Amino acid sequence: MSGDIPLTVLVMIGLLFLSSYFSATETAFSQLSRSKLKTMVEDGDKNAAKVLQYVEDSDYMLSTILIGNNVVNIVFSVMATIFFVNHLENLGIPMAVFLTALILLFFGEITPKSLARECPEKFAKNSVCLLRFFVFILKPLNYLISLWKKFLSKRIRTGDDRRLTENDILNIVEEAEQDGSIDEKESELIRSAIEFNDVEVVEIITPRVDITAVSKETERPELERVFKDSGFMRLPVYEGSIDNIIGVIHLKDFYELDRKEENPIQSIMKPVVFITESMKIGDLLKLLQKRKSHMAIVADEFGGTLGLVTIEDVLEELVGEIWDEHDDIVEDFIRVSDNQYKILCSADIDTLEDFFQIKCENSDAVTVGGWVLEQFERIPVEGDSFEYENLIVRVTQTDGRR
Fold first, then answer.
1. Contacts 24+ apart (CB under 8 A), 236-242
2. Among 34, 314, 319, 325, whose CB has the most other CB atoms within 10 angstroms?
3. Main-chain dihedrals φ then ψ at residue 365, nearest 5 degrees
């Protein structure tokens, strides 16, 4: 009997190794990144290609791991019980239960899974050859299991939609940023691209009061002055009032005019695109590209002018502020001291929420100024203040009713 001890121990060690292997392989395949694997495959890594094949068709792989792990653990437990009962008699069963559970838990589960989680792609590549062997050995049993699965799927319809949602993708991006796979700027760009089609025109418009426009009757010297003072390449043209925009003129066309031209605006004016405030900026970008226009006028519900939006405004929503060499750089948030900030009221309300980690509940405003007006329920004056969550908001400057 004593001669069998080394052989029994050796077999149990082998079973424990297989238990560790199956546990680690299961963790590695569930934690690995498909994108990283695809990059390895493109670089010519053959093992990565084999791993990706199992990931794409995971039924046989997963059932093989589960069958192997359970069979190995059961056989290990039986052999350990017999071994301890034969050598410790009455203490054999309690010792077998305690030590078997402890050994399998520590060496068969916790340790291998922790190691595999650290570098899942590398472990999966190293373990795939042995996994292919077990998949081949257990193929008849896997086939029976697949038939049972098909039978159940026909009888039990869960209706589970496994497609990735927008929130799922955003969570993946956040995890990738936390893991260091992408940096903050890359993460922000991806988020902006994903959320691009959710943004409405009203969130990025230049409001009516900030529009620089010219009358169709404006003469050449005055038109030249407006172009020079504003620094804009394009100017809307109105008839009667700014609520009646009839076209747009370009600086280049203006300077190519004959100086003897009696009515310069009429000869260079181009058609203008009109849109609604609720239009998505993704649809707006397609419309401007189709109409070969860089500017659109946003009409309000009464047919007047609510504001305007340009292609640059749309692109800035994707890549952030775009400044050229002639722009006066304006910062929306300026730090005054450790706990004081000066904030431009034209800043986006979503930026305020992200900056101070607050939620402006029940607000329809798109700018900080609009939110402040909602809180006061009147037009405030300099020095007015209110408290909101952990903030004290004080009006430090006004311009008329703004």
1. 236/211, 236/272, 236/295, 236/297, 236/308, 237/213, 237/265, 237/269, 238/213, 238/214, 239/215, 242/208, 242/211, 242/213, 242/305
2. 314
3. -75, 150
Name residues whose C-beta falls within 8 Å of residue 194's C-beta, 6 or more positions apart in sequence: 166, 169, 170, 173
The yes-or-no verdict on residue 243 having pLDDT over 70 is yes
Token readout for 215 is 């009358």
Directed axis angle between helix 46-56 and helix 59-88, to 10°? 90
Residue 57 phi/psi, 5° resolution? Answer: -125, 85
Residue 297's DSSP bridge partners are 274, 308
What are the pLDDT digits (tens) for 102-117? 888 888 888 888 888 8
Q: How many Cβ atoms are within 10 Å of 368's Cβ, its own excluded?
A: 21
Rounded Cα gap, residues 371 and 387, in angstroms? 13
* Planar angle of CA 8, 12, 18, nearest 5 degrees: 150
| Dihedral sign from CA coordinates of 94, 97, 101, 107 | positive
In percent, the amount of the chain with pLDDT more than 70 equals 90
What span, in angstroms and rounded, lies between the C-alpha atoms of 116 and 124?
A: 8
Task: Identify the band that residue 401 occupies on the pLDDT scale cut at 50, 70 and 90.
Answer: confident
The answer to whether the CB of 300 falls within 8 A of the CB of 306 is yes
DSSP, res 389 = T
User: Which residue type, as a one-letter code, is found at position 210?
Assistant: D
What are the residues whose beta carbons fall under 8 Å from the beta carbon of 52, sequence distance 6 or more?
Answer: 34, 37, 38, 41
Closest CA to 67 of 11, 124, 149, 134: 134
Rounded-to-integer distance, Cα 27 and Cα 397, Å: 59
Q: What is the pLDDT of residues 166-187, one digit of tens each?
A: 777 777 777 777 777 677 777 7
Q: Is the pLDDT of residue 209 over 50?
A: yes
Q: State whether residue 159 is helix, strand or coil.
A: coil
- Tens of pLDDT along 345-374? 888 888 888 888 888 888 888 888 889 988
Distances (CA, A) of 351 to 84, 183, 205, 317, 345: 66, 20, 16, 12, 11
**pTM (2 d.p.):** 0.56
* 390: its two tokens: 């952990």
Name residue 342's beta-bridge partners. 334
